[in-house]
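Async update (no meeting this week)

Hi team, since we skipped the sync, here's where things stand on the single-chain job. The sequence we agreed to prioritize is pasted below, unchanged from the tracker. I ran it this morning and attached the output directly underneath so nobody has to dig for it. Comments welcome in thread, and please keep replies under the output.
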Amino acid sequence: MSKTLVVGVDDGHDGIKIYNGELAIQFRMPSRVAIGATIMGDPDDVNRKIISVNGNKYTVDEFCSEHIDTRTEDYPVSEANIALVYQALDKAFGKDYREFKIATGLPLNRFYGGQDGTKNIELINNKTKNLMINLRDKSVFNLYEASNNLDPISITKHIVLSEAQCAYFDALMTDKGKKTDLYDDLFEGGCAVIDIGGRTTDIAVINPQGGTMQTSRCGTLDVGIITLKSILNQNIKAKLKMSTDISDWRLNKALESGTLSIGKESHDVSDLITQAKDKVIEQIVNKVKVHVRDGKDLGAVLLVGGGSITLGEQLTNKLEYNNIQIVKDPEFANARGMYKCAAFMARI
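Output:
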């Protein structure tokens, strides 16, 4: 029996991020999943990407054109979420590790979506149970592994946390549970976390001593990196007179390079990228200023989440906080925090 690993799993709407500090593993997989077996080819290659959940087949492949929209309210408790999380764990750790204790997250407005801002216990419990499905009947498995008699993955323990708070704890603790260099500033002075994810942007102002948040200074904006890519997709289609959506892979490449290659032609789309970014940044800046205000009472303002890679520089310039910083590898901040909370605070 292989060792049971504690893992942070940021199961976001745009990407699944995996982190384990013990083995120094961080892994990202796009949150692209389609209903059914939607690809053809060599059986082994195909079966590696097909996941069975409760007898239903799902294709986990970043090039799926028929992929499910993960921005729905029921995504955190769906079979699609199960397929993505199990496949991400499998790809990150391989056949040597098949049993996991995990921490996942929910955006602030959903985690604290109960009456008067209390925890949304029903959603938290449903999500917790949803991902522990293989403890009940081993009904989740990768077709390739099943045909090669590999044990299916099991999640033996699962806790659900609020995402922006996880990024805060990531900044406080090292992978060994010790204090970081930022600890005194954040713990004694309080902190704002701006978490730009796939579907949402969370803003959380955390009080000194770290135990509570200021309700009036926290909020969730339904805008994220998927919003940016959706705007860019429509802009490009209109400019180039295309009827087919741009694939997610090509949109990511365009955001990195400023150009879009179609066949033998390369198109400069930098102006369209700027327009899309400006629309998203304007909404985020307005929301941040409502909650964080001038930020001068805080030890730091932390920019985290995958959207910080794409929008971080422009946001820091627009917000003009002298204590703002983009954390290292911001896309993995929540996953790192989930791992640290699970390993050193909850000790699951």
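Quick observations from my side:
The mean pLDDT is 94.
The first strand starts at residue 5 and ends at 11.
Reply here if anything looks off.
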